[in-house]
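Onboarding guide, step 5: your first structure request.
Type a short instruction followed by the sequence, for example:

Predict the 3D structure of this protein.
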Amino acid sequence: MQRNLLGNTGSEVSALCLGTMTFGEQNSEVEAHAQLDRALAAGGPASLTGLVDLDAVRGEIRRKINKDSTSAIDRISDGFIDWLTQGIRSDGTDALDRLVTLEWVQERLLSKSTPSGGLLPAVSRALFDAPLDFSIRLGTPGAEPVFVRMRLGQLGWRVTALYY
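The system replies with structure tokens like these:
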């Protein structure tokens, strides 16, 4: 897939991506969820480029595992800790760049998506933490949840943290 530089930010994005600037303005919540579901199901990981800020997701995870830093990530599961530990043992400090990819984000979100209803039925909690920050808990009670944090920026709503 063709990739382009995003202005002078140094960030590279796919030429085609899922845009989220109009969520809540030009389309409804139901339409936004449907758009996300279609991108997850049909577009592959590259379709999430406009929705996921991988540098921010990796940064939050780095801050979480650095006990001296403050992170937006709350408690993490033993499975998440084991996954990170195994990656760090295998790849050292480069582990997050190899592990935290659009493919991983897609896999985590699809793990909570339902075939008939997409992600919306999996939402067990959704709330604004601050005017520009939104948290979502995906998963049924008793099951291991996936937590998604989103931030509103110049490019619209983007995933800035994802953990389980």
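Each response can be followed by summary notes, for example: The mean pLDDT is 80.
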